[in-house]
Amino acid sequence: MAFTMRAVKVPPSSASLEEARHRVFDFFKLACRSLPKVMDIYNLDDVVTISQLRSSISAQIRKNAHITNPKVIDMLLLKGEEELSNIVEHAKQRHHIIGQYVVEQSGPHGEGSTKDPSTSQFLNNFYTSNYF
Amino acid sequence: MAAALRPAILRHLRIPAQAQSLSVDQSAPFLSSVMNRIRSMSSHDEHLTHEEVVDRVLDVVKSYPKVDPSKVTPQVHFQKDLGLDSLDTVEIVMALEEEFKLEIPDKEADKIDSCPLAIEYISNHPMAA
């Protein structure tokens, strides 16, 4: 049981968007450098390659690319770092990793790969908003 | 200091290729040519050639999913020519780190934003594998 306690640091507060951007890239590099260890821990060699995992990490970062408030970016980075440390210290399990980072992410009401693709247009509109 | 001792020690241990070929020459000329090719204790054969570096860098860039492989040349700029953004640039640099088993410090990694710069950096790096 390798429980590595991360040193409790003062939570970062970026002065500017530029500094927050640097922090995002540093976090991304840290995550990429720990990918070989993740592949080894969860035995993902048959399921996915390192470059696919790297792309899914960058896709998740890109989902929040529109945010301009540095404090919000810091908060998201904090959540990301927590997620990364959970994964690296084996607090998650293989099906978590596969479901969250390997499988194509679907919309909130499952139009993705696991569900029947012939759900009706009416239902899709209903899920997205009240007015259609 | 250890780096200075190392060649001195190696010079002692290095089997001179000439002497080996002389001893085996009469019995098996084929074997001697094979043994001349395998320099088991030489530390000078691991440097990458420039073409090899260029080929591998272009392979890494071409296999990036957002890149159109036909546009990739050794002169492309990632953001200007290939239409990638800064996060894609960082991702390509990380892919290059993985391919060449390097760890590029942040200051240098920030400067790499085109193929020629990447090729130059990797060619000059002593630890590129």
TrEMBL record, chain A:
It is found in: Mitochondrion inner membrane. Keywords: Electron transport, Membrane, Mitochondrion, Mitochondrion inner membrane, Respiratory chain, Transport. It comes from the Eukaryota. GO terms for biological process: response to oxidative stress. GO terms for cellular component: mitochondrial inner membrane; respiratory chain complex I. It is a peripheral membrane protein. InterPro entries: Complex1_LYR_NDUFA6_LYRM6 (IPR045299), NADH_Ub_cplx-1_asu_su-6 (IPR016488). Its main location: mitochondrion. PANTHER family: NADH DEHYDROGENASE [UBIQUINONE] 1 ALPHA SUBCOMPLEX SUBUNIT 6 (PTHR12964:SF0), NADH-UBIQUINONE OXIDOREDUCTASE B14 SUBUNIT (PTHR12964). Belongs to the complex I LYR family. This is NADH dehydrogenase [ubiquinone] 1 alpha subcomplex subunit 6. It comes from Rhynchospora tenuis.
TrEMBL record, chain B:
Gene3D superfamilies: ACP-like. The keyword Transport applies. Pathway: Lipid metabolism; fatty acid biosynthesis. InterPro entries: ACP, ACP-like_sf, PP-bd_ACP, Ppantetheine_attach_site. One of its GO terms (molecular function) is acyl binding. HAMAP family: Acyl_carrier. This is Acyl carrier protein. It comes from Rhynchospora tenuis.
